[in-house]
Design a protein that fits this description.
With about 80 residues, this protein is an all-alpha fold. Helices cover about 60% and strands about 0% of the residues. The longest helix has 18 residues, at about 30-45.
């Protein structure tokens, strides 16, 4: 599998680590792969919005990938 290096914020890194620590995911890579799958699916369906700070112009009522992933995470925690 190819490796890619990305920079994320300390808060994002902490959130990823917390998801692994609480058992929601087996690894940080699993979290990122799932986020990328959701981004790709949203992009293909037209639900992806690049400017997450301008929610008034976002499609689907201001939803962006970050919102969709947060909803997915909340659902994942409820079923865990």
């Amino acid at each position: 599998m190819p490796m890619v290096t990305v920079s994320i914020s300390p808060l994002q890194a902490a959130d990823i680590r917390a998801a692994v620590d609480n058992g929601s995911y087996a690894s940080s890579s699993e979290v990122v792969r799932e986020a990328l799958r959701m981004w790709d699916a949203a992009r293909k369906l037209g639900g992806y919005h690049e400017d997450i700070f301008d929610r008034d112009s976002a499609p689907h009522g201001g939803r962006c990938v970050a919102d969709m992933f947060a909803d997915h995470e909340a659902g994942h925690r409820r079923t865990a």
